[in-house]
Structures are given as C-alpha cells and as structure tokens.
Specification:
alpha+beta; Nuclear Transport Factor 2, Chain: A; 2 domains; six-stranded mixed beta sheet; 10 helices
Length: 228
C-alpha cells in the first residue's frame, strides 16, 4: 500500500461570486451614455459569475446528465485515486474488473504498478462533465496533474474516462489521455540525465513506485538546470 498527502500543483481532484445590483429603470433612461455604461456593466458582471462558478456548474451538470448512482461511483473512484491509497482505489473496482488498452481488455490488477507510480508523484484528478453512454456506462472528462508535470511546467493533462458500472463497482475502465506525451518525453530526458549523472535508473513513465520515489530526489535539481 502506498499512502501520501500532497497538494495539487496543477495527470490525471470552489468558489462563488456575488453579482452587483442592477440599476433601476429611471437611471437607465436618463442619457444614452448612461444606457451604454449600464449594459457594459451587466455583461461584465455576467462574465465574472460564469468564470467563478465553472466548477460548481460542471458538478451540477454531471449530476443531472446521468444516473446519480453512476455519478457517485465515478466520484468515488476519483476520490480514492486522489487519496494515494492503492487498496482504497482498488476497492472501487470489482474483483474481475478490466482496463482497456491497445485494443484489448486487461485485468485491472496489471496496472497496479502504474497507479502506485502516480500515487508517489501525488497525482490529483479533477472530475469534469459526465454523460451517459448507456444504462450502466458513463463517460467523464477530467484533468490531472502531479509533481512531475509541475516541475516541467506542463499544462493540465486532459482525459476522457469511460466506466462500466455494475452494483456500484467499476467492471470496465478505459481512458483517452491528451497531453501525456509531453510528460513522458520529458521524463525520458530526465531519466537519462539521472543515470548519466548519478548512475541511478529511475525507470520509465509510467513506471513503478520505486522508480518514482528515486526520481523525487533529483527533480528539483533537474528543474533548476532545465528551467533556469
């Protein structure tokens, strides 16, 4: 079991704004200049409100778009992913759950090392909008970040996660990631530098919890050298 407490830096877990009072009708009709100013103020207020309530609006849409029980199962699997506890994460899947990859379904347990790798890196996932695929499947957008993506200053990794859910547990999982290629290619350079400089093999991306733990010792120095 790997456990850790981390802060979100930016693969793969809100705020509200109050609107200004709207002028009354008497104020609006005094002059044409006053009317124009009033309209612009209304537009600005609406924009700020939309920006500051984006996460809440997404959550509301998610709850209304699919069966609430499916939403709850998806939220739980991401919450446990963010916990960094591999046993809690695994418990959100059925015993014979599979993960899709390269056109084939594999037992979810074959990806345990990958999860532990990202758990060490403190990966956090923020759940976005969801839509129903069918009665037992749901497709959800999400963004994620970890210590490594923060060190190399990459943007949030976007992904679409598809879950098939039975009796509250995930029985099949598939993900389509966007932007993970940058983190992987930069890791290769980083890994080569660590081995050449210190003779330490930190493995690939994603790799193992051991490789990620070793990598933490060299990330700051690497970031200073590459980012100035």
């Amino acid at each position: 079991m790997v456990s850790r407490a981390v802060c979100l830096v930016t693969l793969f877990g809100v705020a509200l704004a109050a609107c200004a009072d709207t002028p009354n009708a008497v104020d609006v009709v005094d002059t044409s200049e006053t009317t124009t100013t009033t309209v612009e103020a209304t537009i600005t207020t609406t924009t700020v409100e939309a920006t500051t309530t984006t996460v809440e609006a997404t959550t509301t849409t998610t709850a209304e778009a699919v069966d609430p029980e499916l939403v709850a199962a998806v939220k739980r699997v991401f919450d446990e992913w963010n916990s960094g506890d591999t046993a809690r994460w695994r418990a959100t899947f059925s015993g014979d759950a599979v993960q899709a990859g390269f056109g084939t379904d594999y037992p979810i347990d074959e990806f345990q090392d990958w999860y532990e790798f990202f758990a060490v890196l403190g990966e956090q996932v923020i759940l976005g909008n969801c839509e129903a695929v069918d009665d037992i499947a749901v497709k959800c957008a999400a963004t994620s970040a970890n210590l490594w993506s923060g060190k190399i200053s990459t943007s949030l990794t976007e992904a679409v996660h598809t879950f098939t859910i039975e009796d509250g547990l995930i029985v099949r999982y598939a993900a389509n990631h966007t932007g993970a290629g940058t983190a992987r290619s930069e890791w290769i350079k980083f890994a080569d530098w660590v081995e050449e400089t210190y003779g330490v093999d930190i493995g690939g991306f994603p790799g193992t919890a051991e490789g990620a733990t070793l990598a933490l010792d060299y990330m700051d120095e690497w970031a200073e050298e590459t980012n100035g």
